[in-house]
Each structure stands twice: as C-alpha cells, then as structure tokens.
Amino acid sequence: ATGLRGRDFLGLVDYKPEEIRYLIDLAIDLKRKQKNGEIYQPLKGKTLGMIFEKSSTRTRVSFEVGMYQLGGHALFLSRNDIQMGRGETIRDTAMTMSRYLDGIIIRTFGHRNVVELARSATVPVINALSDQSHPCQALADYQTILEKKGKLDGLKIAYIGDGNNMLHSLMIGASKLGLHFASASPEGYDPDAEQVKLAREFAGETGAKIDIVRDPREAVEGADVIYTDVWASMGFEEEQKERERAFKSYQVNEELAKGAKSDYLFMHCLPAHRGEEVSEGVIDGPHSVIFDEAENRLHAQKAIMAAIM
Ligand code: CP
Ligand code: NVA
Prior knowledge:
Number of strands: 9
Order of helices and strands: HEHEHEHEHEHEHEHEHHEHH
CATH topology of the largest domain: Rossmann fold
Bound molecules: phosphoric acid mono(formamide)ester, norvaline
Largest sheet: 5 strands, parallel
Distance between the termini: 10 Å
CATH class of the largest domain: Alpha Beta
Shape: globular
Mean pLDDT: 98
CATH architecture of the largest domain: 3-Layer(aba) Sandwich
Strand order of the largest sheet: 7-6-5-8-9
Number of helices: 12
Helix content: 40-55%
Radius of gyration: 19 Å
C-alpha cells in the first residue's frame, strides 16, 4: 500500500498528512470488513513480537487480536521474561528478533529505546507507547473523531492536563491534520518544547493552530472535543500526591464542559481515574466516546500493520 511497506511507525511526526489520512481510511475500511464478517488476511504466515516494559490492557489485546484477524501470529514478550530484563542490549535483542519476526512493537520508558530498537531491527518497529509519545492511540482517536464528526479539518480539540505522551501525539496529529489544538496544563507540567516547536512548524504548512495555555476554560472555549489523561502516567506513580495538588483545578467536569460546543465529544485514552482528571458524570455521560476510541485501537493498528508489514 502506497509506499508504506517496510516503514517504522514511531510517531505521527514521521508521516505526511496524506499518509495519516490513508491509514485512517484503511482503518475505517478494515473495521467495515470485520463488522461484515469478511475474512481479510494479508499477513498470513507473519509474526509480530510485542515487547512490553509497562502494563497494558488495550494495546496488548488489540495488537494480539488484530494480528490474528489479519492472518498472522503475535507473541507477548514481557521485559522480565526475555533476556533484555537481565541486561541484554536493545541492539542484540533487535538483531536476534529480526531473524524470527516480521514486525516488533515496543512499549517502554525512554523514547530513545524505541529509536534504538528501530535502528537495529531489520523489520518494521511500532511505538506502542513511550514517555514521549503514543501514536497508535492518537491515530485511533482521529479515526474516532472523523467517524463521529464527519471531518477533522477545522475542528477544535482541547486537551486538559498533563503535558505527556498523549498530549504530544494528539498535538502532532492535529498539526498534520489541520485541527485547532489547544491545551492547558499546570505550571511545571507543560508539553515538551521541542514537540511544540515541531507541531507549530507542521501547523504552518497545514493551516492547523496550536495554542498552549494555562487556563483550562480558555482551552475548552468552543471546543468540539475535550480530551484528558491521567495526572500521573506509568512511571510517575510516586508523584501521585503532589500531582493531585498541582492538577486540582484541571478536572474535566460538567462545569468546565459548559464552555465547549453543545455537541462536544469527551475523549480519554484510558485507563481513567474517575473523580480525578474527569468527573464520573462526564466520562460516563452522553458525550463520552471512550469505548469507541478503545475499539478503534484494533482497527487503526490493523491498518498500520497491514500497511507497513
Ligand atoms: N490506552 C492504552 O494504551 O491503554 P493500555 O495501557 O491498556 O494499553
Ligand atoms: N499517559 C498514560 C497513557 C496510558 C495509555 C501513560 O503513559 O501512562
């Protein structure tokens, strides 16, 4: 498909707007095929290794099921069960695994581990979440927004909370797809300056708009989508208490949502902490599309695998 074969999928930053759109359209097509009971197995006989250094529900299950549905086989490789956990280098792991596998996904801490794995592997590598980014989630989220709103271009997405991997991937996605992205984070929890700079560069080419502000009400004003994520990501658990204090006025609740459009979507990558970053009324209310997002992880990742593997 369209020259994506053999590519890595480390971040939306490496993909052109039309390539991201192609993957979203493919995801929608694969979703339709699956709902109609059509068998589509372009990856018959292929294998995917899945290295996890952090917990996962959605990513693990959707990649494993997706690979099966495409006719291939996936292996779950927990860091502690492979020699990487005992100090074997990422390079040796990548070189070895490339002799068995047709693709590798990795969920890890430092993004440089993802880059190092991709550099050393001779098969495509997919970023299944790093401290810097979570592009599979963002792709599924833009698919969800397109399905619900019928378009992406010109919509406003407000991200409230931690300047983390989710913020970065949504912001880069928005900058490539022509949305107005506005985020509000407390002082000390802003997004990475390098990521903001990149997003603003892309926005200059696509007509997207990137606003990084402090006040959640300002970000939410007139938004089509309100997105939030946990205050303490994986690896930051020991900061939970101090983050609860810092993020106290950043909860997405009915009061804050009043500033958004009346038909706004509420989105969250999950897992969520009800009563912290989002009120129960909002996450379980009529605007919430959290399980559509979760479902679309399956279809979006099938699209990525079918295109690059
Ligand atoms: N959203 C997401 O990636 O969920 P998991 O951590 O359960 O994979
Ligand atoms: N920001 C969260 C996303 C989990 C899917 C984390 O990194 O833990």
